[in-house]
Amino acid sequence: MEKVKKPLKETRQVSDILDMSSLKWRIEADGLELLVQGFKEKKILGRKCHKCGSVYVPGLSFCRKCFITIEDVVEVSKKGKIACYTASLADVRGNPVENITVSVQVNLDGSDSWLMGHLEIDDWKKVYVGMPAEVVLREETNGTLADMVCFRPI
Amino acid sequence: MAEHKIVNSFVGLQFIYNYRVGEYLDKYLDGLQSKKILGITCPECERVLVPPRSMCGKCNAKTKKWVTLKPVGTLKNFTISHVEIEQGEIKDREKPVIIGQIKLEGADSLLTAKIEGVSPKEVKTGLKVKAVFKDTTEGTLQDLDHFEPVK
Amino acid sequence: MRNVAIISVGYNGRFVAKRPDVNIPELIQPAVANAIKKTKLKYSDIGVVVEGNMPTFEGINYPHLWFSDHIGAAGKPVLRISTGGTTGMSVFQGGYYCVASGMFDVAMVIGWEKHDEGDAQVGLIGIVLPEAFSMFQFGPDMGGGGTGMMGGLSSTGGASFQALSYLHRAKGTPDHIDKMAAQARSNAAKNPYAHLQHPNCTAADIAKTPMVSYPLRYGHTCPASCGACVMLLVAEEKVKKFADTDRVAWVKAVATASSDATTGNLVDGQINDPAEQAICEKIAAPKAYKMAGIQNPKKEIQMCEVYDGFAHQELMWPEKLHLVDNSCKAIDEGRLAIDGDMPVNPSGGVVSTNAIGASAMVRVAEASLQIMGMAEGGHQVPRRVKNALAHGWGGLFQFVTITILGDEPVKR
User: Fold this and answer.
1) Could you list the residue range(s) of the whole structural domain that residue A98 is in?
2) Which among B70, B73, C35, C293 has the fewest CB atoms less than 10 Å away?
3) By the 8 A CB rule, do C383 and C338 touch?
4) Do C35 and C230 meet the contact criterion of CB atoms below 8 Å apart?
């Protein structure tokens, strides 16, 4: 069915590089700051909307549903349920990977948002939606993102 | 309200692009390699466009007839450049450079190129100029090195 | 507000992976010429040109500076619109606003992409940067860099969360996605303009392809294509003058809704769930049906073209658009096929052809060809298409656009 195609004429190429590392952006990191401060005391902190009651982890500074500024800091559980997951079986170029990683989104008890992270599990085929999991923090926390090691099934 | 935490973000990514010049510019560069300046004619308004392109934007017509232009023309416009950009930094040039717009004989568009052999103080529009090619050409835009006054 | 008709669709040719023979203006120009050729229009009749593609993909942020003389724009306004995946339909709707408002009688809309000049995968990461920054603010990945970019933030990563969440809700299995992808690739083989054509592709063929990010396989993902799509939009009173056909496609409704930049669109429903899509289900779709005067979409709409960068989306969107109750059941029953009662993407969809800036516009173009009865190569829906729906999504699932076309204008 496919007709025999003539190869297209190759015309000259001009190359160009855009080096993104020469650009800088400023971002607001309120929610992250609250979260890592909480890590110091081995707590997971978020913010609660005083109008609709939604709890956000990380705790952003405004409610995305009500579009109002929110300030009430609340602690949520380190335990929750896996709401969604994927296993990375290939890299960005489509080549198979040796160490299969499982990324999960966990709905922590007391929070209305899903927190994304890496799940420590021996076989990715054991993961299911609704699986109980908890946040694993390292022994000595110092208020950085690296304090949170991973999620682990309960 | 509490003060916002603001952080600067850095993204270490490089984007590499490879643009195709297409059939018309490809042929133009072939021309430069053999030390010729090629133009193309619009079948409707009969204007000759240099560098050549596939469409005449005025008539919305596909350009057709290729022509080889004489490498001589008139300086119609110019600027004198005192600075250059090197890796995003603006630097003073060692000596000023004249960048001119030249109307080649038989062409209807202006070609932008360096002008040499005349001092920035003496350069003026209306000057008759001729194209000077590099000794060894490689099929790039740099093959047409500069224009200089016809003596 | 005036009624607007699509009187002509032009492609530059078949969508393909590489076009080393042309530059960007030369890629787009034949699509413009093909669209105009099928009408009684002259370039001078066009009042405004609206154009769009993905900014980082070719690294040129103002490509229209380069090709304005190739699209007949001399002396006319050129507008550029860019909204991620929805770009093509946002461009179309921009053209629609120009004509419906009474400002212009004729608008030309152009969506295009030349993927072979940039790096689509790196480009996608670039596109995802604003999303990533937003996540830092609102709900970041805590996996620490690597997992984030690969598992969560790159397009396949984000889509795989969506696919899994969708399957969980619809009680479907990855086999359903295989089936859907197989239908798309087989449909594409009947569309002479489609990129990945695989005649009589089966679910088993798709299931043989490697898993990328569970539950999405290589065979569920879209290619990176080069191509352009052009449409001509004309005000009702000028349709007879300019159209070269009796069957034009009338724009009955346009709707767009936007949300925030995280994996989950949040207007209503579960925060962060990329399969929630309340902005489509609860905002854009009802708005579009109301504007089009459609009471029962399942009965009144005969086909749809949805934006399925990944095959599971071809199952998910018809549900969110109120066209199918459960797509996993519907595909098992063969109802989504070209001869089914709700054909989804007879063209092969985005999963078979993805020149991103064109893709959402191609949805409208294909829907209009179905109404005009001009879909070539055997992908014309057999029964008469009176109303057709085209859909697009963009960002990290945060923009949704819907256009409803009909064979008759709406009385306004």
Assistant:
1) 28-153
2) B70
3) no
4) yes
Residue C328: CB atoms within 10 A of its CB come to 22
pLDDT for residue C49 is more than 50: yes
* Predicted pLDDT of residue B38: 97
Domains contained in chain A, number: 1
In this model, does residue C272 exceed pLDDT 80? Answer: no
Counting Cβ atoms within 10 Å, is residue A115 exposed (0-12), middle (13-18) or buried (19+)? Answer: buried
| Residue B133 structure tokens | 């090619």
Structural domain boundaries, residue B30: 22-149
Question: Does B87 contact chain A (CB < 8 Å)?
Answer: no
Q: What is the DSSP letter of B121?
A: T
**Model confidence pLDDT, tens digit, residues A66-83:** 889 999 999 999 999 999
Distance (Å, whole) CA B26 – CA B38: 11
Domain count, chain B: 1
Phi-psi region of A152 (alpha: psi -120 to 50; beta: other; left: phi over 0): beta
Helix (H, G, I), strand (E, B) or coil at C198: coil
> Mind listing the domains of chain C with CATH numbers?
4-118+224-242 (3.40.47.10)
Please, which residues 232-261 of chain C have a Cβ atom closer than 8 Å to chain A? Answer: 260
- C343-359 confidence digits (pLDDT tens): 999 999 999 999 999 99
What residues 5-24 of chain B have any CB closer than 8 A to a CB of chain A?
Answer: 5-23
Which chains have 3 or more CB–CB distances shorter than 8 Å to chain C? A, B
**Which of C154, C161, C210 is the closest to A96 by Cβ?**
C210
Interchain pair A15, B19: CB under 8 A: yes
Q: Which of B1, B4, B5 is the mutation pick for testing A, counting most A CBs within 10 A? A: B5
Cβ of C74 within 8 Å of Cβ of B57? The answer is yes
* Contact call for residues C94 and C81 (beta carbons, < 8 A): yes
Which residue in the set C20, C129, C213 is minimally distant from A8, CB to CB?
C20
- B116 by Cβ neighbours in 10 Å (0-12 / 13-18 / 19+) ranks as middle
The helix-helix angle for C311-320 and C155-170 (nearest 10°) equals 50
Which chains sit next to A, with 3 or more Cβ pairs under 8 A?
B, C
Span C209-215, average pLDDT: 85
* Residue A5 located in a structural domain: no
Query: Would residue A20 count as lying in a domain?
Result: no
Pick from C81, C131, C219: nearest CA to C397: C131
Query: A7 — contact with chain C (CB < 8 Å)?
Result: no
pLDDT (tens digit per residue) in A85-139 = 888 887 656 677 888 888 888 999 999 888 888 899 999 999 999 999 999 999 9
Calpha distance A104→A88 (Å, rounded): 11
State which H helix or E strand residue A32 sits in. Answer: helix A30-40
